[in-house]
Amino acid sequence: MSGKHFKGHEVSCCIKYFIFGFNIIFWVSVFLFFLFATLIVFHLGNFEAAI
User: Fold this and answer.
1) Contact predicate 41/50, CB 8 Å
2) Alpha-carbon dihedral of residues 20, 26, 32, 38, nearest 10 degrees?
3) Domain ranges across the chain
4) Average per-residue pLDDT for the chain
């Protein structure tokens, strides 16, 4: 090898954890939204009317 090594762009550790945390919060909030929406539709009993 010639001694020239490609060093890729490194991302800050804080940015990695921020993106990871945001991703977790996003998916949990989407899951809770669909859970509550489903519970509301079934609780009201108008599932056919909601579609």
Assistant:
1) yes
2) -130
3) 13-50
4) 82
Determine the 3-state secondary structure of 22 from DSSP.
Answer: helix
CA distances from 1 to 5, 7, 8, 33 (A): 9, 15, 18, 54
pLDDT at res. 24: 98
Distance CA 25, CA 51 (A): 28
Please state, in angstroms and rounded to a whole number, the distance separating the CA atoms of residues 5 and 16.
24
Whole-number Å distance between alpha carbons of 8 and 5: 9
Per-residue pLDDT band for 5 (boundaries 50, 70, 90) equals: low
Dihedral angle sign, alpha carbons of residues 23, 27, 30, 36: negative
